[in-house]
Amino acid sequence: MTSLASVTLEVADLTAADRFYTAFGLGTQVRLRASEAPTSGFRGFALALTVAQPADVRAFLDAAVDAGATTLKPASKSFWGYAGVVRAPDGTILKVASSAKKDSGPATREIEQLVLLLGATDVTATRQFYVDQGLVVGKSFGSKYVEFAAGPGPVNLALYGRRALAKDVGVPADGTGSHRLVLGSGAGPFTDPDGYAWETVAAPAPTA
Predict the structure, then answer these.
(1) Quick one: residue 92, left, alpha or beta (phi over 0 = left, psi -120 to 50 = alpha)?
(2) Percentage of the chain with pLDDT > 90?
């Protein structure tokens, strides 16, 4: 295992979820699977989209709300740039952000980077777990945040303290039951220290 090969969201209504993620713009980046596994509260993860400018942030968030999402944090400026957060109808939390605070042109709705943020109880220990599995650290801010080097898949993987992640996306940190998330790699299957399940999948072929 050298990278994250796939991200599968487990949803109660497969047809509705497919319609939402296609409208939102993630129809090809994430996989969907039907599941009735019990879950409540914060599931411990979020999908973070990085885009070029505030206009793109607003375009993605407006599309999400039009498709049935609930706003958790309205789009606004911050010290780091411009961002907003929504919760999809299936419960998945989506953050859209740009490092730019001013627009340089019309929105293109192009995704520069898509990162799966996993909330970890102990970021340092979980980082070591994934390094032992073959992942390579790309960015690290001590025990607060770790981003692994990008692989050939459409989604990058990062670790964030669970409570810090919950605060960042605007929800209480408590939650129980299934994460409703399955990750894929060329290795596995295995489960990480926080209960995120991995399964064996064929890694996507490198793009030209």
Answers:
(1) beta
(2) 87
